[in-house]
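Review form for a predicted model. The reviewer records the input and the model, then writes brief findings.
Reviewer: anonymous (R2)
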Amino acid sequence: GWYVPSFVIERHPEVSSFWGLQNQREKMASMFKRPYTWEKYCQLLSPTNCSSSFYDGVARRWPETDAERGVYYKSQLYTGHFADTAKNNCTANPTTCSGHIVDAPCSWSTNLEQQAFWNDIYLESDGPNEPNDSYSYGQMIQVLRAANETKSNIIMWWWKPDGLVLEFAGSDAELHPVTLPPASEICVAKRVGPGVNGRCSSDISVRRGTKAGSCDNDHHALKKVVCSRLYSDTYDVSPPRRSPAYDFIKSIQVTDLEMEDMLKHWALRGVDKYGYDGRDAVCTWVRDNLDDLQRFIPRGYPRTLDGRNRYKESYMYAAMAMGIVALIVVFSTTFVTYHQRDTRILRLANVQFLILMLIGFSFVSLGAILFATQPSLVSCTMRQWLVTIGYTLGLVPLVVKVGAINKLVRSARKMKRVVLSRKYLFQVVLSIVTIAIIYLIAWSIVDAPTRTEEWNLSEKDLDFITVNVDCSSRYQFWVYITLAWEFMLCLSACVLSVQARKVAQEFNESHLLFALAFSHFAFLSMRAVTQILSSTGSASVRAAVASFLLSSDVLAAISIYFIPKFIIIAKKKPTALKKVTISGMSGVSGASDLSQGGSEAFQSEAGGRRAVILSEANARAKEIQPAAAPSNSKRQVRWVTGWSKNGQSAPSPRLSLSKTTFPQHHQKKEEDSDESSISCNNDIESSEESSHDTQQSQHELKLERVQDDSQSQVDRIIPGTGSLTQKIKSVAKHDASTQEGGIVALRGDEGNEEEKEELCSSTESSDEQFIYNTNIP
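Model under review:
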């Protein structure tokens, strides 16, 4: 509303009400003079032209800057000055003269022009701002200070509570409101509104409005001005981290008296009036009224932050201990494997591949230990590297080896040459591991796992916050891809184990591979469940569970795959090869032990020797049933495989066949005797032929020579009615002349089950390998 200083009321008490202001044109014009700017005063009124040499009592010098030229008051330099203008001259302008009133900008809630005009109060603003000739906020304060400095009469539009009002409180310049006609709802509704079509219109008649809106300003409560973004900034944050500021400001209530208390402190401090003083005034008031402000704090605040380190709980130490145990078991298994590397069961399992598996298990054990430690940028990344590469090394070598054996069996059924080198198998393993490493590098560069803090509100107590420290990336699909990779390895192992179930028993690890894959799959499934539930529960508990699962997976793998082999070694079983059945050979069983330097089946020998396994000697000759073969008549046959050294063919293998008739009562004794009792001569030899041989020579016998030539087979069928010895000699003679190696498959009369023979089980020549313990119908 309208305000006047105390010293004006003391001179003219009537001005405190519109009754003393109405229809007083000349009095208003003579009482309320118009203020002059510093420059305007120096140009028009100063007797010394504002010379610095002569102080005229108003200005000590000429204004030096543009800012100084337009001011109405400058402390210690320009006191301000009020004087009559043509608008105050009622002699020259008896119907238009007026006194001066300080009006606010039209964009404020002032209706001064409407109130003065319709209440016949002849006061007008004469400021520099159009359209209502108003003053800016700073200029209004300057005019008031100039009036107080010069004790000039002034009336102005202002408001309370405000610091300026409190600054002059208690002095002769204290501002007092001027009473206008009382406000009403009808009057307030009839007031000129804001905007260019209202108070800011260039048409003065529009700004003046109607008489119905000329009442006094109504009293209204203070309103809180809040930035619209404060709401979104508050509620876009998760509840545990949400600030109570918006809800607090929304609910807080400050009375006019409390506001005046703060404003008075600000106005009187006088240190940094338009800087820190305002903050100091508010903080001081909050300190003094803290107990009263407690009632405005939203429910659930203030909150208590649980600062306990969950990674120092007892279950985390237990998980770490189990990881260390798993690592020690892996190291111990590695030591035993290397120490027993020359034993037959480990040689057939391929010691190099076993070491790779154990390296992978050691990586997984280290990952289990890291899962039980406090997360950091390094540990979060190393967890995924160790576990992913560890599982890859733990499964891929076994999968590649079993896959190679399966490939051998499939090729044998098609009568194809199979050459498997150690270098190739290791290249396959290295290639698969490289794929995993490339993926981990991309993950670490694009979206590396890092330490994150997740705050959760307690369900029972809304002001208690628990902190979950975990490792995570911005996108969770990285973790799911690694889990899918491990699932794929387990699935491959399961499929290969099913395919290898009919492989030769000496090399058949299908049951171990299946059990190992099933174990990995079970623990991997549980780890996947914990990952899916990562948004719930305690992060430290999930990390401990993951650590226990990884350690248990390693211990289970060692127990399934390695411990049975160590038990067999500890029992000191015979090292001679057992009966080995190569699937696909019709009635033929065979086995091959490779070079003395090799430790695995179907592997190249040191020095570049490659074993050429010519399997599936599937002789399809007609079987001749002898006329009168005694039930205890038996044949002994030795088979020899050919070797290739450095690309050169080895000498032709030799075959020996002997036929011996055993008495019926010696049959069981012979069956229980050692294999060395079977004749294994280097030359072709034959026992005396019985009358049964004479009858047998009259029947047709077919002998198949199976030889690999550029992945195709050449079958040579030798028919005839000669004796069995003569037929074998003819084949051996042909081999000696052509220097060819290979396998000779002999088929004679089928006989009964008692006629099946075992071949010799050892040889002294490194260039010759026997297929042992073979039963031929």
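Findings: The mean pLDDT is 74.
Further findings: The radius of gyration is 54 Å.
Recommendation: see findings above.
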